[in-house]
Amino acid sequence: MAVGKIPEFKIGTDNWRLYVDRLEQYFLVNNIEETMYVPTLITVMGAECYELLVNLCTPDKPSTKTFTQVTSILEKHLQPKPSILAERFKFRHRKQSANESISEYVAVLKRMSKHCEFGTWLEESLRDQLVCGLQSETIRQRLFTEESLDFAKAYKLAVSMEAAEKDSALVEGRAGPSSGADTVECKTMTPRWAGGQAGQRAGRAATRAGRGGRAGAIGGGGGGRARGPARGAQQCSACGGAHDKAGCQFARYVCRVCNRQGHLKRMCPNMTEQYDVHANTVVDEENAYSEDSDEFQIL
Would you tell me how many other CB atoms lie within 10 Å of the CB of residue 123? Predict the structure, then answer.
């Protein structure tokens, strides 16, 4: 029983040299005699490849050729020998791509070096192109500092540093602050109850009796209840009181409607129509920010 199986050769897709290498190993593992090499090749190569072989051997038949002659005829047609200078030019200009690991990059360099015929300069050429074609400038500078750097050492060091960079980036990505791409913009939302209970609480806070000195109120009737400032008096844009905003303690509070610092919710431009805050409203600075309020202070 034969060991393994050799599939048909697909012209335009498969590599003929690799196909022949596999076929030779098939001969070896199954103890096939040399006289059976050509018949076995003709049997497994497939109809399309055999038709091409017949055309290339015309007027002779493929069966009259040796195994070396048959494989050589097909190789010259399917994979003609490239220019050594052109292959070396491609090799010298091959750089590591952005999504390519160092191990993948080295595998490509080794494949490209097959037709460059570097001979005894192969290891040195691979080392030079590995270092010069790296994407990471940090790894390249580290390799520049090494003395007596051969290809094996350069490859091992570059791969280990690449793995260390990936691990470091993973740790920083988990432990560090989230990036801007992970954050969601907070949009101003008016609470559905803004005109209800919250509006009533704000209205009650706005109409509470204030201290005459702090609210700048003018004494009047109603049992000494403070009245609003006279027309033309300055109104605080932070709390609505009759004083300058610069000295108002609520200028440090953050509005719950627009999430901006500098005014209470009832003075927010988005809420003034609901709360109906007027210039003659007296505000008690002691009680304006009560337990009912939704604002918080930035210290």
Answer: 13
